[in-house]
Amino acid sequence: MMDDVTNADNCNGETSKWLGTSIKDICQGKGHWSFAVTPVIPSKYHHVLYHIDVTLQDCPKPHISKESHLWEEDYVRMPFSEKNLFNVTENNSEVIKERWKIIAEVLSAPISTSQEFEAALRKYSSKLPRLEALHYFFTEELDNEDADHFFRNLLPKIVTLALKLPVLLPNGVPLLKQNHNRSLSLSQIQIACLLANAFLCTFPWKSNIATSYPGVNFVSNIPGVAIRMVSGCILKEKRNHGN
């Protein structure tokens, strides 16, 4: 049965009623929103990437196995793999370096504008398109205070989270393929870390599976996903601080 909730008067002076389940009841799992959550059990077809003996007080610890799959056909290519190499120019000559070391060095430096952000990403991503829409968002849509807050406070937090990838997902992430019965369970912090790396465009890409899987990085979705992520971060930060 739907709840009968009376709202404030509308613009015509009439009292309106909203028929539906209250947000409070939804969050508390009452009524139609009451359902049992099946236990997380690892199996041959269900990969659990964290220890399942979790508590509400601490973040789940990542599952660590003897085998690492950081650069294999059936797994996501991880940015911190030793096989993830990148050509850079030093002293007028090209040298090959581990991309993850470049990523960590570049993103650890201060970034204060969207132009500096794009320049940083280009130091480890040669296929990055122009981020004109992102520049427009920061210069025309956001006020100076919010833009400054993002680069000074929020972006460093995103970078710190992204650089925890080798710790949070040390053995890699299996790919979910068509006609294969397989599922994954990840913790919220692991998912957040993957999203942070996608926002920073750190993932390498396999050209041979590009037709079967969408890109992991946010490059193809900028300004869409990236701008929504920036807006969401700023809005959440304001709510947390009561602004």
Automatic annotation (TrEMBL):
Residues 142-219 form the PARG helical domain. PANTHER family: POLY ADP-RIBOSE GLYCOHYDROLASE, POLY(ADP-RIBOSE) GLYCOHYDROLASE. GO terms for biological process: ATP generation from poly-ADP-D-ribose; carbohydrate metabolic process; nucleotide-sugar metabolic process; regulation of DNA repair. InterPro entries: PARG_helical (IPR048362), Poly_GlycHdrlase (IPR007724). This is PARG helical domain-containing protein. The lineage of its organism: Eukaryota, Metazoa, Ecdysozoa, Arthropoda, Hexapoda. One of its GO terms (molecular function) is poly(ADP-ribose) glycohydrolase activity. Pfam families: PARG_cat_N. One of its GO terms (cellular component) is nucleus.
